[in-house]
């Protein structure tokens, strides 16, 4: 059994836990002394704003840290797309250069085989006992460059010849008109003359060259093996 002696008469011994009670009682007393409710609301509002700002800062930092890897990924994708765009631009430049070279070659080579086709078609259509004395061009074939594509002007040519048979002359006209490489076959003149004491029909025919459909074009290799 313990005996407690009070060395300070008139003062009661503090009970255990008196510090917390004094704190709460002090706060209570302070609140009781504050008579202005607007001051209390302002203090509470400031505390709420401070808490919200602290929470916002913490949340923003967390979101920023989470977006760091995504930002690096987007930067890598942007570099990859930039490389792809540069490669595409380089390929387009090469394509445009090739198209320009092909157009130049076509412009130079476009009329190279015109006359072989004309002579071949005229020779096929020429009936027996009929011959040509003159084959001349009126408008040379030319290629005019436009903004979109090359436009080829038709080649007009004139044939002067003679025949021993008037029916052969009309057959010659029909066969020329049926050629896929010729168009606008027009008889300009047909008259009877005497040549070496024989009556013959002298004629003048005008026609134009046109490119045939691909179904009429036959290609062969430049070289063939011979056994």
What would you note in describing this structure?
This protein has 227 residues and is α+β, with helices and mostly antiparallel strands. It folds into 2 domains: 34-109; 114-213, 2-Layer Sandwich (Alpha-Beta Plaits). Helix content is 50%, strand content 22%. The chain has helices at 18-33, 37-109, 114-125, 166-177; strands at residues 130-139, 143-145, 150-152, 155-163, 182-195, 198-209. Strands 1-4-6-5 form a 4-stranded antiparallel β-sheet. It has a two-stranded antiparallel ribbon with strand order 2-3. A hairpin with a 2-residue loop joins strand 5 (182-195) and strand 6 (198-209). Helix 3 crosses helix 4. The longest helix has 73 residues, at 37-109. The chain is rod-shaped and about 155 Å long. The chain starts with 17 loop residues before the first helix and ends in an 18-residue tail after the last strand. The model is unreliable at 141-150 (pLDDT under 50).
Radius of gyration: 54 Å
How many β-strand runs? 6
Second rung of CATH, namely the architecture of the largest domain: 2-Layer Sandwich
The largest β sheet comes out as: 4 strands, antiparallel
Tally the helices.
4
Strand content: 15-25%
Q: Tell me, rounded to a whole number, the average pLDDT.
A: 76
Q: What is the name of the CATH superfamily of the largest domain?
A: Ribosomal protein S6/Translation elongation factor EF1B
The structural class is alpha+beta
From N to C, what is the helix and strand string? HHHEEEEHEE
- Biggest sheet strand order reads 1-4-6-5
What is the count of distinct domains?
2
Shape: rod-shaped
Note poorly predicted spans. 141-150
Distance between the termini: 137 Å
* CATH domain topology of the largest domain: Alpha-Beta Plaits
Output the CATH class name of the largest domain.
Alpha Beta
Instruction: Indicate the percent of residues in helices.
Output: 40-55%
């Amino acid at each position: 059994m313990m005996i407690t002696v009070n060395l300070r008469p008139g003062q009661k011994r503090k009970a255990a836990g008196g510090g917390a009670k004094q704190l709460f009682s002090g706060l209570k007393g302070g609140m009781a002394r504050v008579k202005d409710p607007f001051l209390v609301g302002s203090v509470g509002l400031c505390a709420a704003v401070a808490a919200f700002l602290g929470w916002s800062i913490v949340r923003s930092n967390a979101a920023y840290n989470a977006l760091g890897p995504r930002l690096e990924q987007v930067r890598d994708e942007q570099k990859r797309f930039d490389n792809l765009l540069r490669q595409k631009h380089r390929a387009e430049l090469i394509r445009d250069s090739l198209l320009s070279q092909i157009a130049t070659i076509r412009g130079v080579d476009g009329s190279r085989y015109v006359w072989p086709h004309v002579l071949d078609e005229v020779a096929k259509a020429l009936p027996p006992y009929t011959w040509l004395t003159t084959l001349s061009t009126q408008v040379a074939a030319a290629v005019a460059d436009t903004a979109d594509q090359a436009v080829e002007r038709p080649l007009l040519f004139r044939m002067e010849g003679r025949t021993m048979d008037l029916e052969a002359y009309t057959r010659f006209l029909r066969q020329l008109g049926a050629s896929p490489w010729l168009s606008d076959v027009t008889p300009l003149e047909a008259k009877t003359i005497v040549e070496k004491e024989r009556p013959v029909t002298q004629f003048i025919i005008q026609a134009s060259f046109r490119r045939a459909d691909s179904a009429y074009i036959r290609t062969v290799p430049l070289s063939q093996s011979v056994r």
